[in-house]
Amino acid sequence: MNRQWLYAKQPVGKIGKDTFQWHEGPIPAPRDGEVLVQTRLLSLDPANRAWMMGKTYRDALEPGQVMSGFAIGEVVDSKSPELAKGDIVEGDWGWQDYAALPARRLTKRTTNATLELLIGPLSVTGLTAYFGLLEVGQPKPGDTVLVSAAAGAVGSMVGQIAKLTGCRVIGTAGGADKCAWLTRELGFDAAVDYKAGGVRRAISQAAPDGIDVYFDNTGGPVLDAALTLMNLRGRIVCCGNVSQYDVDKPAPGPMGVPGLVVVKRLRLEGFIVTDFSDRRAEAETRLARWIADGQIKAELDIFDGLERAPEALIGLFEGNNRGKRAVRV
Amino acid sequence: MNRQWLYAKQPVGKIGKDTFQWHEGPIPAPRDGEVLVQTRLLSLDPANRAWMMGKTYRDALEPGQVMSGFAIGEVVDSKSPELAKGDIVEGDWGWQDYAALPARRLTKRTTNATLELLIGPLSVTGLTAYFGLLEVGQPKPGDTVLVSAAAGAVGSMVGQIAKLTGCRVIGTAGGADKCAWLTRELGFDAAVDYKAGGVRRAISQAAPDGIDVYFDNTGGPVLDAALTLMNLRGRIVCCGNVSQYDVDKPAPGPMGVPGLVVVKRLRLEGFIVTDFSDRRAEAETRLARWIADGQIKAELDIFDGLERAPEALIGLFEGNNRGKRAVRV
Which of A128, A149, A301, B295 is the right S-S partner for A217, CB 3.0 to 4.6 Å? Predict the structure, then answer.
């Protein structure tokens, strides 16, 4: 039997359990050129919510389809010469036990790392942090780097990579516990609890020399504050807008655009991790070494059971995750 | 006698004649290392208004000071070995007949061009258009370039340089007359009257293949519209925010930031012309040749008499200029 979560209907305001619908059907059979993959771990990402809102860098989700999502799995049957039974592969086949799909839509993973590391820290999440910070943000030793959603999967790696680059690192997160984790466990120089109010003042106090690079996962009030605190020729890495994904009515745009962008000669730049896919091997090698050496802690936040996938995604927008959230299937 | 316009008080809402105060005093005497310069032409720029609002890339104007502004003048007395009587110089000595100031704060102009060309098309205005478009915007032949305030001093040159680069060029301007001027006289491919309403739809119709480079002089509704129409990896050159300079209460920021910046991998980048001062000679040479060859029309919009300076600046925000506005003193 193939268990699936379907995307049932477009949410109005926050996603809820009725955004998804459980479905059970037969295990599909691979056709020529296809393989049958069995899901091992599903990646839960804020982008999953953004896909419900309309066309992004991919088409909008359509009600009735299997809920989309990045996953790690094992090839259990192959009608393609490119992949063999037992291969570990990654791809976007969504929230289900099994999928039959063309081998070319899958990427074979050859590293010796655990599946838990392959679902994020050594894949999309880690690469997003790596290329976004180093290539788009261009931090230099001594720079002050601010990262929002710093206790999240991407943010927690961005901050640690920035520390390895020789930067002073400030993170924003929701709640005192997450903030304490950032400074005590991950080596952030300072953490700001955005739920405590006065976020601009708190960031300003934590960044007395201003901000050189802001890695923006959230948009919203932290972006507003960062714009006013950026140094001349500062860089804002536009990675996500998670404060605006799960809302009924989006907030107005940031007041500092374009006025402060002109005055301070700022650069705001968006990117998608696949823009750097030709350099993936280099980045994975460095990330794997940092994790193996303990220089980066790759925190995993795993839910057991496909049936818990909606709960795991809803929780992301309640901010109850720490590090990379995934579902073990 | 030295006639001056002082900056009298910070405007609330729109600037008016009471923003300025007429003053007459003695002609100053240059000290050692200084020269006495007699103003010939004053440059009127939207930035003059922005300087009243607070610290920008320079300190805010202080009530009681001579109104600041870029100017062209002639050295009429010199106590510096660097400049001699009769030299034509440019600098920021403001709205007055005469100023005594250190020679190092002036730039000697050696080109054979007329003073009218030196006040803008071959100086700050032209260089802003040149470096902003070519260096920050990075247009390629075949790209679609949108420029706002296209009938203004900078915008009219941006559009013409973009045409010389092989781009399709669309300008926004206020009123049918200015729009007709852009397409008939300056060679724009299309012009959109932002005062006629439906600006997003009109730009969309003029740019069926989307926008690759948006040169933003205005912020406001044209920036909002442009963000939704940008192509993947489009560049937005943040040059000015003139729609927000002369208002009581600034409008909310652009809704497409940061969401569309991420999804389309846009780059928004601010700059100030002095960032490129080491390459000024190269740019001036090319601009002078284009103007001499008739490939760029440098429209001048000159008011006669220092007494008319406030009227000339106020008019800029009513959009009654075409090309470079200056005051002949």
Answer: A149
